[in-house]
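Lecture 7, part B: from sequences to assemblies.

Below are the input chains for today's worked example.
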Amino acid sequence: MSLLADIGVQILLVTVVALSLDVIVGDEGLVSVLQAGLVGVGAYGFALASGAGGGSWVVGYFVAGGLGALVAMISGFLTARLRGDYFVLVTLGLQVLLLEAFLGWRSVTGGALGYTGIRQLEIGGMDLGEPWWFFLVLPVPLVTVAALVVYGVRRSPLGIVLHGTREGEDLVDATGRSILWLRFQSFLVSGALAGLAGGGLAQYYGYIEPRMFDVDQSVFFLVVIILGGVASIRGAFAGAALIVLLGETLRLFPISNSQVGFGRGMIYGLLLVVILRWRSTGLFGRFDIWDAKR
Amino acid sequence: MEQYLAYGLLEGSILALFAVGFGLRFRASRFFDFSYGALALVGAYAHYSANVDFGWGFGWSVTLAVAASCLVGTLLEVSIFGPLRRRSAGSLVLLLASFGVLLFMENGLGLLFGPYPKHLAVSDGFRQVLQIGEARLTVMQVALMAAAILVQVLILTLYKRSELGLRLRAAGSDPQLSEIAGWNVDRTLLVGAILGSGIAAVAGILASYERSVFFGQATDVVLMAFVSVLVFGDREVWWSAGGGLLVGVVSSLLLIVLPSTWQRATVFACVIALTLGRELGKRIGER
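Predicted structure of the full complex, as structure tokens:
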């Protein structure tokens, strides 16, 4: 039974990251390869604030979301005038930079050895670290908030203007709106949600290491939203569920953990190529990834 | 200082070879092909298997490795990139597809050859240390540097002087005009992909003698090649070679003032700053 809860937690946390990434890809039409880095910033922020910092786990989530938003806004500022390939490549560079910082800043992050002793979920002295409790208390409210925020953004004037930039940035620029300010806002939402998901991930596993936030992981999150369908909340849920279940299916085979990891990587890579080649709107997509800003 | 410079030149010359292949692919097909890292790894693993597991001689192992990498490169071009391009896929879609291929192949090679690094043994003669001024390098390291430079000179001469080079450059700068000139762009890009795969294999083999063969290197290799190409911006292939050499030397010299854990982050930060500065300058120029 706890296996089901574990899968549920994984699906919902991946969905939160997928929703956060969809604000950039689906609403702005920009392909970002930075999301795993932002999740990592949230995870380390949570670990430091609630562990070494001595704060409660609630404070940890505030720090995780805040740090994720801050780093995302800086990235948004740096990439404000980029689109197409160059946006992808600079976000890729920033992703590598964050990963190197997680590895290199040993005194804070623990370097390649990782960070342990992360504060467990507890309310009023009651330990809620067990998968079912954790599933109900954290990922369910978190994914609900994330879905409502993304839904709200899409229905708000900001969402409408963002969709305008997706279709033609120069046209929105010509109306006198600041592209830089729009990008700040979308990155703020995306970074805060990714940071919160990072906090959830750190608290659930109780251990984080840089490898969990590398380039491959960023590509994995892209696969999730492209598979589910870009610019669709339903798509983020479907993509996350399908990918996590596919990955978990490999555990049914009598193979080692490293072989499971390799098998998952192969499936994700193959899925990305297949979707791009034959069904670029994914399962429920409302925006074709082929039309992303060039 | 001289020792750091010598290591930098060694790393830089191999990185420059990676960058030449990556840059050549980019110049011809106008997208950053991240599957290049996996092709280098195919070459490195094929060479290791033939040389160590099957006991083949060095020459035959290298030939097999280059052939294997070229075959995989051809399959990728024929089954994935070519069809996408014919459906008018933009460079962004091709770039994303190449991420997928990299992920698939990197993990596939990890599954086939295991998660641990594989080391190539060299004879005692190659382990002898040479004193060059204040720096010390082994015979193997000097041979690797010489081989990397020699292959680069050959490739760049081919690119500059031959009709194939002319066709590759033409396909990259104006595919429609190339078609009008009677050159089949698809065929030219296929030949370019095969040539790039061959260069990736040779660079992968040289790197495996300098370090080891490890599945995770595919992403590392392609990131460093990509950074090398970006250093001097969207210019001709020989600039990519210069970028690779510069990145290698600067990375090594950074170790004098920085701990090794910050080496790559500093290089990436500098190249991102350069790229952003160049893009900003271009925008200001346009206005």
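Note for the exam: The beta strands of chain A are 115-116, 122-123, 126-127, 207-208. Keep this in mind when comparing with the next example.
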